[in-house]
Amino acid sequence: MQKILVVLGCAGMLLTACSKTNNNNNGGNGSGGNPGGPSGSTDRIRQITLITPIGSRNDTGYQNFVYDAQGRCTQYTQNNGTGPVTTYTYGTNTVTSDGGGFETKYFLNASGNADSAYQAPFGATVTLPPGSGSYIYKYFYNGSGYLVKQQQFQVNDDGSTTEQEAETFTISGGNVTLVTDSASQASISLTYTNQTTTTQPLPPDPLVGAALSFLNAGPSVTLFGKGNANLLAVFPESIGNTTTNIKLTYQLDSQGRISKTLEDTPAGASGPATVYYTYY
User: In this structure, are residues 129 and 116 in contact, taking their beta carbons and an 8 Å threshold?
Assistant: First the structure.
């Protein structure tokens, strides 16, 4: 369960980036105080700007996205290309993510959702079948298309597999409201606002995998099933043995896309942080 809490904390500012092309050519202002200026004519995210007060200064980070002609994200970089780079390649019923030293290959089912995934050891390339030290992930969905379970296995030296952990996700009102570790039965609860958005979620990240699925917001089906119907109001951030509840508030532009998110942290934590979204 510790891993899930950490993932939620790390992915807080990533929960609503998008990868969907919109054929509406009217564009939209969407600036809402966004230093990136007016948005363009599609719903593809161009940049996420994160500003966090640290001491007497503001620490600013950037996440940038590149797309192919079909509107699929092909590259994600941090700090305008000076930070880590993750690339995404698309095959027949597969998506391969390569970044942060980890390569992950997702295998898709008939609905276009991830059915399973192989993640190679640090610095290695995914092989078929997966080699020793690799991880295998399996994903399960309910009849409505929501992810309800994720399992993680490690490949042993003799080729056998050992289950490392599993999480189950409780769906209520179109949102993941409870995440439970299947082994320990420890759970965390997630709460939501009454807001909805047209913004689509990020591509999969090789380090957090399906955990992003219960941060997603938007009406379309994602790689890990349907996103949440509403925007997340609170998520737990875990650092060591300390868990802090981060409260989120949003500003939407005229097209219903998120233009600004405020991450409000309790006194003594490293916040609040302001996140701005710029679109093509």
Answer: no
